Each structure stands twice: as C-alpha cells, then as structure tokens.
Amino acid sequence: MFSRAQMIRILSLMVFLGMGSALTGCSTWFSDNFKDPDVRLVDVNVVKAKLLEQRFILRFRIDNPNDVSLPVRGLEYVVHLNDVLLADGESEVWFTVPANGHLEFDVPVRTNLWRHVRQVVKLLENPDEPIRYRLQGQVKTGLFFGRRVHMARNGEIIPGDYLPE
C-alpha cells in the first residue's frame, strides 16, 4: 500500500507535469512569433424583433495565422449602427481555433432599441441606402496566461437585404 506522503508526492508530480505540458503551447503567445488572429463579423441574423426586445445572432469568424492552435476564452463586443448602439456584451464561449485555420461561432444578442426607435425608423426609410456599422471589442485568448486581442471593424450593410418582401 502507498503511504499518504507517497500519494501526495505522486499527485503533486502529476499536477506539475500536467501544468508544464499545458503551458508549453503558451510559449509562442509570449514570443515575437505570435501573430494576432483576425476577427470579423460575418453575419447578423434577426431571430425575433418585437417592440421592446430584439434578438440577433452575431456570427464571427476568427482566422488563426499561427502554427499552434489558439484557445479562445471569450469575446467582449460593442456594435453600433451609424451612431445607434445596437448591442454590447460579453460571450464566455470557450473553443479552440486550429493552427493556420479558422472557426466561425455565434453570439446571441438581446437588445432594446425602443429608445432609438426614431433613429432606427429613419435608417430604414430607404432600405437600399447603406447603413454604417462599427464593431469594437476584444477576444480573450489562452488558457492560463493569454492575451486580449483588440478588434475594430467598420463596414456597411444594406437593410433591404435583410427585410422580407
């Protein structure tokens, strides 16, 4: 039988080796070889649009230019349409982007545009006119020690592409 001291030593060694092997992949995150991933908003889907609550699905794509897989621990974001705050929040979904690969993921969003209803109606008066959007935020990467990768995107959407006929 193992004594209590031997059991503690074995467990401590296993924890130490496990942490050491988990951190070996992190070394590239601290070196000059690490390249920030590219994060883009690729789609916005309207799930439900009622007077006091709107639900959207924001679809993001992360491209990992590194030779090692990239663990992602979450995303903080702010999305504006023209100067109207559409949504802000945080997603705590964990996933891993493969080395030199990409991954798309969805973030459910709830918002209340009631206080901006005049501005939104004005934006939708001409459905073929583009509306500017601005996405800002940061992606939390790494397991134990990681980076916060900042992102900022500007673009345009045409509301008529999203309105049913």
Automatic annotation (TrEMBL):
Alphabetical GO biological process terms? response to desiccation
Q: Where is the Water stress and hypersensitive response domain?
A: 39-158
Q: Which PROSITE patterns match?
A: PROKAR_LIPOPROTEIN (PS51257)
This chain belongs to the protein called Water Stress and Hypersensitive response domain-containing protein
